[in-house]
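seq:
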Amino acid sequence: MNSTEIVKRSLKRRYAREKRFRLYGRSAVFVGFIFLALLLTDIIIKAVPAFSATEIRLDVRVDRAALELPATGRINQEMISTVNFGAVIKQSLRQAFPDVTSRKDKKLLYKLVSSGAEFVLLQQLSANPDLVDQKTLRLWFKADDDVDTYFKLGKRTSRIADRQVEFIGELEAGNRIRTAFNSTLFSASDSREPEQAGIRGALLGSFWTLLVTLLVSLPVGVAAAVYLEEFAPQNKLTDFIEVNINNLAAVPSIVFGLLGLAVFINFFGMPRSAPLVGGLVLSLMTLPTIIITSRAAIKSVPPSIKEAAMGVGASHMQVVFHHSLPLAMPGILTGSIIGMAQALGETAPLLMIGMVAFIVDVPGGILDSATVLPVQIYLWSDSPERAFTALTAATILVLLGFLTAMNALAIYLRKRFEPAQAI
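struct:
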């Protein structure tokens, strides 16, 4: 066998190996894409029912006699707040089904409508007390979560009685049932009842928590990166600091939660479940990521730019703040946003500081009790009611949407500042 044939066979084997390697790479990408598509499809399918709600129409008597209000005089909000609207809703249901007389059937009838219907009626009349003079109001109320699940599944569940199925059939025959957009999902906070639960409180809790995280971690992280990269002397102390920063980036997040519990809550006495404490804990967790990425961005600035600036008489401080930082800004912003996205999806450290508590009120600031989206997902995923499954999946979609938006913002900022970096 001559040398030419040996070379040809060697090239043939090499090309075959390269072809197999490309095939393995494409297969890995394809398999990963398939699993991602299956995961997203499963979440979307489970989340779709959460964006709609079953509503029942009732003709509610709101005259003064039915509400037990004074027969004369002007009605104000204080008078309306004393009305037993639960009894008014029950009376409307009995009027819609006059043939229901037994105590057992009445209980089943009352369970068709959500327990929050009385608060809806209270809000309607409190906003406009003059509606009392209209005698009867035709309003749509959310159905109970069992009725809602019955419609969305298209079949009976063990929590729906035969008599309730008959009631539902009569309501459908009278066009008293409809499916509407579930605005409560975005306008309400957490609730024990699935049809009344929403993510507004968790959204604002995440906002306040991330705001504290950003205001603390970004300036501190960038300042630390600038000092370590540009001003700190190279000695054993700075080497020790760099090693520990790199190690902190790999510490489990729950350790930061234990640190926050011990320091911020037990030692400093800060309020539990507050976005202030949550933001400080997440800042500790995010700082290593911001410092490492900011140092890498500063280090990537071409030395020729620094040398040219110093050659025309610029001081070291002027070189850093007039040249190095502006050119490193795309990498700094990208690393900061990625760190914030990581903080947005964290659950374990926030559980340790009490943000797992059941919070009904919407937080109005960083000192109010609050929860965040990942913790809300954790709470709902552990709830026994079947309707919370859809709410959990819908909240996951919202969280993924925010994470995608933050990563897209990081890419945009990098592209936006690339021309300035290339100068």
